[in-house]
Fold this protein.
Amino acid sequence: MPKKPYKKRKRKRSGKKDTNIRRKYIVSFLLVFSLILLATILIWNYYHEPESFTSEKYYVKGIDLSHHNPIPDWNVLVDQNVYFAYIKATEGISHEDRNYIYNYELAHETNIKIGSYHFFNFAVPGKEQAKYFIQKAKFSTGDLLPAIDVEHSPANLYNKDKKCIDDVVKELKVLESELYEHFGVHPVIYTNGDCYKLYIKGNFPENIIWMCDLHKEPSKDVNWRIWQFSHNGEMPGIDGDVDLNYYRYSFQEFQELLLP
Protein backbone atom coordinates (compact mmCIF):
# COMPACT_ATOMS: atom_id res chain seq x y z
CA MET A 1 0.00 0.00 0.00
CA PRO A 2 1.58 3.24 -1.06
CA LYS A 3 2.50 5.68 1.71
CA LYS A 4 0.73 8.96 1.95
CA PRO A 5 2.89 11.85 1.01
CA TYR A 6 4.42 13.53 4.04
CA LYS A 7 3.02 16.95 4.82
CA LYS A 8 4.94 19.28 7.02
CA ARG A 9 2.78 20.43 9.87
CA LYS A 10 2.49 24.14 10.34
CA ARG A 11 3.44 25.17 13.80
CA LYS A 12 1.06 27.42 15.58
CA ARG A 13 2.66 30.74 16.33
CA SER A 14 3.04 31.56 19.96
CA GLY A 15 0.91 34.44 21.22
CA LYS A 16 3.59 35.47 23.67
CA LYS A 17 5.11 37.99 21.32
CA ASP A 18 1.80 39.72 20.62
CA THR A 19 0.93 39.65 24.31
CA ASN A 20 4.23 41.30 25.22
CA ILE A 21 3.68 44.02 22.64
CA ARG A 22 0.21 44.70 23.99
CA ARG A 23 1.57 44.88 27.50
CA LYS A 24 4.20 47.38 26.44
CA TYR A 25 1.55 49.57 24.82
CA ILE A 26 -0.66 49.39 27.92
CA VAL A 27 2.26 50.19 30.23
CA SER A 28 3.30 53.11 28.01
CA PHE A 29 -0.26 54.41 27.87
CA LEU A 30 -0.67 54.21 31.64
CA LEU A 31 2.66 55.94 32.17
CA VAL A 32 1.76 58.81 29.83
CA PHE A 33 -1.72 59.07 31.33
CA SER A 34 -0.28 59.21 34.84
CA LEU A 35 2.16 61.96 33.87
CA ILE A 36 -0.63 64.01 32.27
CA LEU A 37 -2.83 63.52 35.32
CA LEU A 38 -0.02 64.55 37.65
CA ALA A 39 0.74 67.65 35.57
CA THR A 40 -2.96 68.57 35.54
CA ILE A 41 -3.18 68.25 39.32
CA LEU A 42 -0.07 70.36 39.84
CA ILE A 43 -1.34 73.08 37.48
CA TRP A 44 -4.76 73.03 39.12
CA ASN A 45 -3.27 73.35 42.57
CA TYR A 46 -1.02 76.19 41.42
CA TYR A 47 -3.91 78.25 40.06
CA HIS A 48 -6.74 77.10 42.33
CA GLU A 49 -5.22 76.39 45.71
CA PRO A 50 -7.13 78.42 48.31
CA GLU A 51 -5.19 81.46 49.50
CA SER A 52 -5.36 83.63 52.57
CA PHE A 53 -3.98 86.90 53.87
CA THR A 54 -0.41 86.00 54.72
CA SER A 55 1.53 89.10 53.69
CA GLU A 56 4.04 90.66 56.07
CA LYS A 57 4.15 93.76 53.86
CA TYR A 58 0.47 94.71 53.53
CA TYR A 59 -1.82 95.07 56.53
CA VAL A 60 -5.01 96.63 55.16
CA LYS A 61 -7.03 93.67 53.90
CA GLY A 62 -10.12 93.64 51.74
CA ILE A 63 -12.42 91.47 49.67
CA ASP A 64 -14.80 92.01 46.77
CA LEU A 65 -18.08 90.24 46.14
CA SER A 66 -20.86 89.77 43.61
CA HIS A 67 -23.80 87.41 43.17
CA HIS A 68 -21.24 84.69 42.35
CA ASN A 69 -20.51 84.59 46.08
CA PRO A 70 -23.00 83.52 48.73
CA ILE A 71 -23.91 86.30 51.13
CA PRO A 72 -21.24 86.08 53.85
CA ASP A 73 -21.47 86.35 57.61
CA TRP A 74 -20.18 89.90 57.87
CA ASN A 75 -19.63 89.70 61.62
CA VAL A 76 -17.31 86.74 61.15
CA LEU A 77 -15.42 88.70 58.48
CA VAL A 78 -14.76 91.39 61.07
CA ASP A 79 -13.08 88.75 63.21
CA GLN A 80 -10.89 87.87 60.19
CA ASN A 81 -9.58 91.46 60.10
CA VAL A 82 -11.31 92.26 56.82
CA TYR A 83 -11.09 96.05 56.74
CA PHE A 84 -12.80 96.91 53.46
CA ALA A 85 -15.04 95.34 50.83
CA TYR A 86 -16.24 96.30 47.38
CA ILE A 87 -19.55 94.80 46.30
CA LYS A 88 -20.98 94.71 42.81
CA ALA A 89 -24.00 96.95 42.38
CA THR A 90 -24.75 97.17 38.66
CA GLU A 91 -23.69 96.19 35.15
CA GLY A 92 -24.51 98.02 31.93
CA ILE A 93 -27.94 99.64 32.14
CA SER A 94 -30.18 96.72 33.05
CA HIS A 95 -28.46 94.46 35.56
CA GLU A 96 -28.58 95.01 39.31
CA ASP A 97 -26.67 92.43 41.33
CA ARG A 98 -29.20 90.33 43.24
CA ASN A 99 -27.09 90.22 46.42
CA TYR A 100 -26.13 93.87 46.39
CA ILE A 101 -28.70 95.39 48.72
CA TYR A 102 -28.34 92.59 51.28
CA ASN A 103 -24.54 92.82 51.32
CA TYR A 104 -24.59 96.59 51.55
CA GLU A 105 -27.00 96.72 54.48
CA LEU A 106 -25.42 93.84 56.40
CA ALA A 107 -21.91 95.22 55.93
CA HIS A 108 -23.05 98.62 57.19
CA GLU A 109 -23.98 97.01 60.49
CA THR A 110 -20.28 96.29 61.01
CA ASN A 111 -17.23 98.57 60.92
CA ILE A 112 -16.05 97.18 57.57
CA LYS A 113 -15.56 99.94 55.01
CA ILE A 114 -17.94 99.18 52.16
CA GLY A 115 -18.04 100.39 48.57
CA SER A 116 -20.03 99.79 45.39
CA TYR A 117 -18.76 99.07 41.91
CA HIS A 118 -20.22 99.11 38.42
CA PHE A 119 -19.25 96.65 35.71
CA PHE A 120 -18.62 98.69 32.56
CA ASN A 121 -20.28 97.35 29.40
CA PHE A 122 -18.22 98.27 26.32
CA ALA A 123 -21.27 98.36 24.04
CA VAL A 124 -23.47 100.73 26.07
CA PRO A 125 -23.14 104.54 26.20
CA GLY A 126 -21.20 105.67 29.25
CA LYS A 127 -23.67 108.39 30.19
CA GLU A 128 -26.54 105.90 30.44
CA GLN A 129 -24.41 103.56 32.55
CA ALA A 130 -23.49 106.36 34.94
CA LYS A 131 -27.16 107.28 35.35
CA TYR A 132 -28.09 103.66 36.08
CA PHE A 133 -25.29 103.17 38.60
CA ILE A 134 -26.09 106.38 40.47
CA GLN A 135 -29.78 105.45 40.53
CA LYS A 136 -29.32 101.88 41.84
CA ALA A 137 -26.22 101.99 44.04
CA LYS A 138 -26.07 103.32 47.60
CA PHE A 139 -23.48 105.73 48.92
CA SER A 140 -22.91 107.26 52.33
CA THR A 141 -20.24 109.47 53.82
CA GLY A 142 -17.34 107.24 54.79
CA ASP A 143 -18.10 104.64 52.13
CA LEU A 144 -15.41 103.67 49.66
CA LEU A 145 -15.15 105.71 46.48
CA PRO A 146 -17.35 104.36 43.67
CA ALA A 147 -15.45 102.01 41.38
CA ILE A 148 -15.68 101.07 37.70
CA ASP A 149 -14.81 97.50 36.69
CA VAL A 150 -13.06 97.49 33.29
CA GLU A 151 -12.23 94.04 31.97
CA HIS A 152 -12.90 91.69 29.09
CA SER A 153 -15.78 89.25 29.42
CA PRO A 154 -18.33 87.44 27.23
CA ALA A 155 -20.08 90.83 27.04
CA ASN A 156 -16.81 92.74 26.51
CA LEU A 157 -14.90 90.88 23.84
CA TYR A 158 -11.38 92.00 22.98
CA ASN A 159 -11.17 93.66 19.59
CA LYS A 160 -7.74 94.75 18.40
CA ASP A 161 -9.22 97.22 15.92
CA LYS A 162 -8.01 100.68 16.94
CA LYS A 163 -11.39 102.29 16.34
CA CYS A 164 -13.06 99.81 18.67
CA ILE A 165 -10.46 100.47 21.35
CA ASP A 166 -10.91 104.23 20.91
CA ASP A 167 -14.69 103.85 21.22
CA VAL A 168 -14.31 101.94 24.49
CA VAL A 169 -12.02 104.64 25.88
CA LYS A 170 -14.41 107.37 24.73
CA GLU A 171 -17.44 105.90 26.51
CA LEU A 172 -15.39 105.03 29.59
CA LYS A 173 -14.30 108.66 29.81
CA VAL A 174 -17.93 109.75 29.63
CA LEU A 175 -18.84 107.35 32.44
CA GLU A 176 -15.92 108.50 34.57
CA SER A 177 -16.73 112.16 33.96
CA GLU A 178 -20.39 111.71 34.92
CA LEU A 179 -19.44 110.01 38.18
CA TYR A 180 -16.86 112.69 38.95
CA GLU A 181 -19.46 115.40 38.37
CA HIS A 182 -21.95 113.65 40.65
CA PHE A 183 -19.66 112.68 43.53
CA GLY A 184 -17.02 115.39 43.29
CA VAL A 185 -14.25 112.77 43.37
CA HIS A 186 -12.73 110.56 40.70
CA PRO A 187 -13.92 106.96 40.85
CA VAL A 188 -11.54 104.08 41.36
CA ILE A 189 -10.88 102.01 38.22
CA TYR A 190 -10.54 98.25 38.57
CA THR A 191 -8.69 96.52 35.75
CA ASN A 192 -5.98 94.01 34.84
CA GLY A 193 -2.71 94.21 32.94
CA ASP A 194 -4.15 93.76 29.45
CA CYS A 195 -7.02 96.19 29.86
CA TYR A 196 -4.81 98.70 31.60
CA LYS A 197 -2.54 98.85 28.56
CA LEU A 198 -5.43 99.01 26.09
CA TYR A 199 -7.83 101.44 27.74
CA ILE A 200 -6.52 103.00 30.96
CA LYS A 201 -2.85 103.87 30.60
CA GLY A 202 -2.39 107.54 29.73
CA ASN A 203 -6.14 108.16 29.65
CA PHE A 204 -7.07 108.34 33.34
CA PRO A 205 -4.15 109.91 35.23
CA GLU A 206 -6.34 111.23 38.07
CA ASN A 207 -7.96 107.92 38.95
CA ILE A 208 -6.80 105.51 41.61
CA ILE A 209 -6.17 102.10 40.08
CA TRP A 210 -7.40 98.84 41.57
CA MET A 211 -5.18 96.32 39.80
CA CYS A 212 -5.79 92.61 39.38
CA ASP A 213 -2.61 90.54 39.11
CA LEU A 214 -2.74 86.95 40.30
CA HIS A 215 0.97 86.27 39.86
CA LYS A 216 2.96 89.25 41.07
CA GLU A 217 2.72 92.63 42.71
CA PRO A 218 1.62 95.35 40.26
CA SER A 219 4.27 97.55 38.74
CA LYS A 220 5.29 100.65 40.66
CA ASP A 221 4.80 102.56 37.40
CA VAL A 222 1.05 102.11 37.81
CA ASN A 223 -0.83 104.43 40.17
CA TRP A 224 -2.36 101.48 42.00
CA ARG A 225 -3.74 101.58 45.52
CA ILE A 226 -5.59 98.26 45.67
CA TRP A 227 -4.11 94.95 44.54
CA GLN A 228 -6.44 92.05 43.87
CA PHE A 229 -4.06 89.13 44.22
CA SER A 230 -6.34 86.11 44.36
CA HIS A 231 -9.66 84.76 43.09
CA ASN A 232 -9.36 81.73 45.37
CA GLY A 233 -9.40 83.16 48.85
CA GLU A 234 -10.73 81.07 51.68
CA MET A 235 -11.81 82.29 55.08
CA PRO A 236 -14.41 81.68 57.80
CA GLY A 237 -17.65 83.49 57.14
CA ILE A 238 -17.67 82.86 53.40
CA ASP A 239 -18.70 79.66 51.64
CA GLY A 240 -16.49 79.00 48.62
CA ASP A 241 -13.78 81.13 47.04
CA VAL A 242 -13.59 84.90 47.35
CA ASP A 243 -11.42 87.62 45.79
CA LEU A 244 -8.69 88.93 48.10
CA ASN A 245 -7.16 92.41 48.04
CA TYR A 246 -4.53 94.52 49.76
CA TYR A 247 -4.45 98.27 50.13
CA ARG A 248 -0.99 99.50 49.24
CA TYR A 249 -0.28 101.83 52.15
CA SER A 250 -1.21 102.36 55.80
CA PHE A 251 -4.56 102.51 57.60
CA GLN A 252 -4.13 106.26 57.94
CA GLU A 253 -3.54 106.75 54.22
CA PHE A 254 -6.52 104.53 53.46
CA GLN A 255 -8.68 107.57 54.17
CA GLU A 256 -8.00 108.66 50.59
CA LEU A 257 -10.41 105.92 49.46
CA LEU A 258 -13.37 107.20 51.50
CA LEU A 259 -16.18 109.48 50.35
CA PRO A 260 -16.29 112.81 52.17
